[in-house]
Design brief:
Distance between the termini: 48 Å
Number of strands: 8
Order of helices and strands: HHEHEHEHEEEHEEHH
Family: Belongs to the MsrA Met sulfoxide reductase family.
Strand order of the largest sheet: 7-6-1-3-2-8
Keywords: Oxidoreductase, Signal
Oligomer: single chain
Shape: globular
Number of helices: 8
Radius of gyration: 17 Å
Structural class: alpha+beta
Function: Has an important function as a repair enzyme for proteins that have been inactivated by oxidation. Catalyzes the reversible oxidation-reduction of methionine sulfoxide in proteins to methionine.
EC number: 1.8.4.11
Strand content: 15-25%
Helix content: 25-40%
Catalytic activity: L-methionyl-[protein] + [thioredoxin]-disulfide + H2O = L-methionyl-(S)-S-oxide-[protein] + [thioredoxin]-dithiol; [thioredoxin]-disulfide + L-methionine + H2O = L-methionine (S)-S-oxide + [thioredoxin]-dithiol
Length: 227
């Protein structure tokens, strides 16, 4: 009986911190609303920067990872990889679209190369997890490296081959490598969510630990104010 209760408790804890849980959805509607004014980003011209697109689980986590990297000016949470127009968080998070939670990365190629961004992408996730990442399950959390041209495709595929040859993972890499089509920016309350809501249960138990693991693994890639 004690074992059954313990298993039930562990399942409840996992569900509570899952990206799909009502806790996350409600927190994103409430906690963030109170902090929106304080953390409102200034409007900035990003037209001079290059863009790259990735998906590897909850976009709160992925956005925070890329924004800690030298040469990255901005990372925007959104949706990509699907066919539906104007997807919403409720639709994507509920698995009612073919989109995945994704990020658009604005970067300065004079400071950080696309090759390095691909390294960041793979180094901050487990690319062997099919249609999931950590506690988050569903195609909306699948791993995708979007390419805008043949050069980017070559860089991604070459890096995957290197990982496979070095046998970095014990399981096959399941990351999708697909041409970029359309990026839909997520609702405003999702932008910089981890920074705005450090005490949110999901952020505290999943997002921040994932960010810290990446930063400890690649300290040489971090912005000076991150150290």
């Amino acid at each position: 009986m004690k074992l059954i209760k313990l298993n039930s408790l562990l399942f409840l804890c996992l569900f509570t911190i899952s990206c799909q849980s009502s806790t996350k959805k409600e927190a994103s509607k409430t906690t963030d609303e109170t902090a929106k004014v304080e953390f409102e980003k200034p409007i900035q011209d990003l037209s001079e920067y290059e863009t790259a697109y990735f998906a590897s689980g909850c976009f709160w986590c992925v956005e925070a990872v890329f924004e800690s990297v030298k040469g990255v000016k901005e990372a925007v949470s959104g949706y990509s990889g699907g066919t539906e127009n104007n997807p919403t968080y409720q639709e994507v998070g509920g698995g009612r679209t073919s989109h995945a939670e994704a990020v658009m990365v604005y970067y300065d190629p004079a400071e950080v190369s696309y090759e390095t961004l691909v390294r960041v992408f793979f180094g901050s996730q487990d690319p062997t997890q099919y249609n999931r990442q950590g506690p988050d399950r569903g195609a909306q959390y699948r791993s995708i490296a979007f390419y805008k041209n043949d050069k980017e495709k070559e860089i991604i595929e070459r890096y995957i081959k290197q990982l496979e040859e070095k046998e970095i993972y014990s399981k096959p890499i399941v990351t999708q490598v697909v041409p970029f089509d359309k990026f839909w920016k997520a609702e405003d309350y999702h932008q910089d969510y981890e920074k705005r809501n450090p005490n949110n249960p999901y952020v505290r138990n999943v997002s921040i630990p994932r960010l810290k693991r990446f930063q400890e693994k690649y300290p040489e890639l971090l912005k000076d104010n991150i150290h």
